[in-house]
Amino acid sequence: MFTKKTVRDIDVAGKRVLMRVDFNVPLKDGVVTDDTRVRAAIPTIQYLKEQGAGIILMSHLGRPKGEGPEPELTLKPAADKLAELTGWDVKFVADTYGDEAAEACAAVKPGDILVLENVRFLKAEKKNDPEVAKRLASYADIFVLDAFGTAHRAQGSVVGPAAYIPAVAGLLLEKEVDTLTSIFSDPERPLVAIVGGSKVSSKIGVLDHLIDSADTLIIGGGMAYTFFLAKGYTVGTSLKEEDWVERAAEMLKKAEDKGCQILLPVDNVVTDHYGEDATGEVVDSDKIPDDRMGMDIGPKTRELYCEAVKGAKTVFWNGPMGVFEFEQFADGTEAVARAIADSDCTSIIGGGDSVAAINKFGLADKMSWISTGGGASMELVEGKALPGVEALLDA
Predict the structure, then answer these.
(1) 353 with 331: CB under 8 angstroms?
(2) How far is CA 141 from its chain centroid?
(3) pLDDT in tens, 334-372
């Protein structure tokens, strides 16, 4: 249960509301190519608008150097996309911390929507500089955090304003936290967790937590090869983390003791080099040649994993099964995605590359919940507190 105040718990009528959204969207030639995150922010913006608030939106986009404006990372395309999706009049100011931004914010009236420029054009934002926080807070009467994707970062635009003006959660943030915590506190079982991606080290806490809570844990992607080493297999030139082999072995033992079934690939698609022109061949997991690297799970593994998904009541998925960006190595990820889509389970997609895969295969409408935050969703699953959420007013 969400324990912080939300926009529903505070009177916003006639107030100026500063709202941190996650408009970190992909751009191509100045056009938004995936508007998922913009769409996700609309319910909270609409609620505030209907309640008579003046709305000031801020976000980061990309990874600017923090030394001033970078035209290719402007938030103007995201502001334009919001206007296009809603039909609202959305104003944009090409400033964040200067006089131009302050004047534009002061002119915001009830029902108005103003988008500020990329908050990370100033390096101090990432360091949660108090001057940044004060400046942003001075623009409004109330702060709303609805950027779940950055809620795990203690940065100026995420936690800063909460020190100076009342701070509450947006509807998206509330739903994200509720959904991702409830799936593990009281799931309908069997609970099948699927974790892919490149490294064991980056998801060690998540894997540990899932062994405690899941009935079956499916491993895919590059991290599988570190588990193979723990089982005594050779992995050729596949991605591996030698320093984490012992820890992977401990996790296999822990899962056995806890009664959590861990499924590892039984066959793999391997190739002689990493590239879009690479040609794959299928080999068993204990027979990877010394000069080959794993790029995807094989057909027997796809069948094994899809069967496990078919019997699940709840599925949590984070991370691809292989290098799905290359068409010839996308079969494993697509098979798992389609198995989840075809199942009648409650399906939670934990952000990041899994969302990209779901969108690539056109299956978004078949999933119960698709998280907008990769890192944030993983930290929540791991049981960590999110700084952005902690800074909000208690309910």
Answers:
(1) no
(2) 29
(3) 999 999 999 999 999 987 788 889 988 999 999 999 998
